[in-house]
Amino acid sequence: MKMTETQFDLIKKQLKRLTSRDCFYGRKLEGINVDDIQSQEDFEKLPFTWKGDLREAYPLGLQAVPDEEIVRIHSSSGTTGTPVIIPYTKQDVDDWAEMFARCYAMAGITRTDRIHITPGYGLWTAGIGFQLGCERLGAMAIPMGPGNTDKQLRMMVDMQSTVLCATSSYALLLAEEIAKRGIRDQIKLTKGVIGSERWGEKMRKRIADELGVQLFDIYGLTEVYGPGIGISCEHECGMHMWDDFVYFEVVDPKTGEPKPDGEVGELVITTLRKQGAPLIRYRTHDLTRVIPGECPCGSKYPRIDTILGRTDDMVKVKGVNIFPSQIEEMLTLVDGASSEYQFMIDHLYGKDICTLFVEVENGTDKSVMEQKIGTAFKAKIGITVIVKPVAIGELPRSEKKSTRVFDNRY
Ligand code: ZN
Question: Is the peptide bond before 59 cis (omega within 30 degrees of 0)?
């Protein structure tokens, strides 16, 4: 991705400000003379910022402006250890609202829409972000928050909600419940704005079909405002990113070197205007790629692909990077294969050996499936695997995110 002149100027101004005071980046970038940064290449030599750095700054070590300028904090979920606290100035909240309203507009949502918001409100950035953007746009917010399906559906019918904001799993649950209760004809939804967790094509199609809506993927993370820094358009070919607020790079997750446009790597974000807690070269751990060329919608905002997975999920075998979404995608193309699988990598006799266990539909011929899946894997992902078809229900199920890739080499 080529950095624009405006982005470069904003970054320089921000670096100057941060290095001239005692703050997180003042210390992190100590010894770096900002005047020596004269090009994108120079900028790309600056050290990355990691989630661990942010955790160490707990609680308010990231704050880059005086207390009187901070109007709010948010916090990342912190399921593993110390949470990250992000302070916001009034300007930050305004900018976020602006970006989020732009997301709704990109999805064709207008002031006459009624937006049913199911993500949670509170410390994390989800519900409140959806609400902020809705009010900025001028549409009607229905601030439900999560849970209580009966109430959700009753309000959806009575309020004639036209837009559903949800995670993909909650959208699916509501869709199934609507089908079960036979109330589809009372539902007036036309659009769904779905948070950026990764979801397969099969799930997407089910939600869209059952609710009769067009779906939009919205992107964001608490460390960088929250949801709303990018969204897919009606052409469903990646997400447009608001590059007047964030500068993004895609780098090799192992080496940190820039990836050419079109190639998959880790998304790295630098905020351009953030005051409360600016971030320089923040490693998101999200895997995606820059989509080259112009979007048929005509928008000039650059695009990244829908999130393909997390760097933590990626494995390298025989020089090839493999991530779960590739395996899922490959399986959707094979008739008779289910979406449930386990991928094992072992090191035996000096070689990496890959085994793919896949649940296949009852009545399919296992040796035929073995051959079909093996061929599809080789064609799509580029390496040879041993395929072991198993019956539906044989692989373990998990309430939480299930582990599907087991690297037994080390
Ligand atoms: Zn577009």
Answer: yes
Residue indicated by tokens 């992902």: 381
Ligand 1 centroid, distance to 109 Cα (angstroms): 15
Instruction: Say how far apart CA 164 and CA 162 lie, in whole Å.
Output: 7
> Taking 60 as the threshold, does the pLDDT of residue 400 lie above it?
no
CA distance 61 to 69: 15
CB 191 within 8 A of CB 214: yes
Residue 396 tokens read as: 């373990």
Q: Is 252 helix (H, G, I), strand (E, B) or coil?
A: coil
CA–centroid distance, 205 to ligand 1, in Å, is 20
Answer positive or negative: Cα dihedral of 180, 185, 186, 189: positive
Going from the Cα of 299 to the center of ligand 1, the distance in angstroms, rounded, reads: 6
What is the model's pLDDT at position 338? 86
pLDDT tens digit string along 266-324? 999 999 999 999 999 999 999 999 999 999 999 999 999 998 888 877 888 988 888 88
For the whole model, what pTM was predicted?
0.86
> 243 CA distance to ligand 1 centroid (A)?
14
Query: How far is ligand 1, taken at its centre, from the CA of residue 218, in Å?
Result: 13
Distance 181 CA to ligand 1 centre (A): 36
Pairing type for strands 191-194 and 163-166 reads: parallel
Cα–Cα distance, 219 to 368 (Å, whole number): 40
- Strand runs labelled E in 160-264: 163-166, 191-194, 214-221, 226-232, 239-241, 246-251
Q: How far is the CA of 295 from the centre of ligand 1 (A)?
A: 5
In order of their start, the domains of the chain are 89-310 (3.40.50.12780), 314-407 (3.30.300.30)
Ligand 1 centre to CA of 236 (Å) is: 7
Task: List, in sequence order, every residue forming a beta bridge with 163; answer none if it has no partner.
Answer: 115, 191
Cα(403) to centroid(ligand 1), Å: 34
